[in-house]
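Hi V.,

You were right to ask for the full record rather than a summary. Here it is.
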Amino acid sequence: MEDDTIEKIRGYLKKEFELDEEDISEVLNEFLSNMQSLIKKASSEIAARNWTDLKKTAHSIKGVSANLGADFISSRGKELENAALASDDAKVSSLISEISNSFENLKNRHI
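Predicted structure:
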């Protein structure tokens, strides 16, 4: 699966929701802000080995990303949710790193 791109997400929002560029920018800014908070929260939950809350946060990462067509982040969110359910330290660390890197790439291309 390829990394998510701002162009791909913009196209998805335009096609699925018929948003204009101003609305797309507003939705993207909100997504980037929310995702940054969710990644930070998930990282704290991983450090604390708080699997119950991590599972909920991962579910939010998955859903928020899916709603915008950010399929790569969404799929990794689903894997993170499953890894939290299994209390898999190594897997959750690897996945949050992938999610964070993909998110940073998106954010840097949006600026």
